[in-house]
Write a structure and sequence with these properties.
The protein is an alpha+beta fold. It is built from three helices and three strands. Helix 1 runs antiparallel to helix 2.
């Protein structure tokens, strides 16, 4: 009994730590995949029917929210920035500068970034570390 009382908490901590790490890896991979998929579908000329009547930014945000099943996100968790090349062929210095406005043209660069925190279920690790930040990014060229 004494050995079990000493070993079981360590075993449980290790087991739930592995579960948390697996959840983090799966969720982070899902966020990256959804960022790529929503960016690609939002930047083509023939967008999905769910985007009818929506601006391209809201279309990308909506597609990301609908397609992400592993982690619940809000539209505000999805940042969409469009950048247009200047006459000299350079992009704006800051990656957060949106210089396309509401009209996206062919060859514009669209950056999609999804950020979310994952709450850990392991009691000790969750209390000391807090929520684990995750982010997924994609860069897509507008095709039409």
């Amino acid at each position: 009994m004494a050995e079990f009382a000493i070993v079981f908490p360590l075993f449980a901590l290790l087991l739930f730590g592995i579960i948390d790490l697996s959840r983090y890896i799966y969720s982070n991979n899902s966020i990256n995949e959804v960022a790529r998929e929503a960016g690609r579908q939002g930047t083509v000329a023939l967008r999905p029917a769910t985007c009818s009547g929506l601006t391209r930014v809201v279309c990308v945000q909506t597609l990301a929210k609908q397609r992400l099943t592993a982690v619940a996100i809000d539209l505000s968790d999805v940042q969409v920035v469009c950048q247009r090349l200047s006459a000299s062929g350079a992009l704006p210095v800051s990656k957060d500068t949106d210089n396309c406005g509401t009209t996206w043209r062919a060859n514009d660069i669209v950056r999609i970034k999804i950020t979310r925190n994952l709450g850990l279920i392991t009691p000790l690790i969750g209390q000391f570390v807090g929520a684990a930040p995750m982010s997924g990014e994609a860069q897509v060229t507008v095709s039409g």
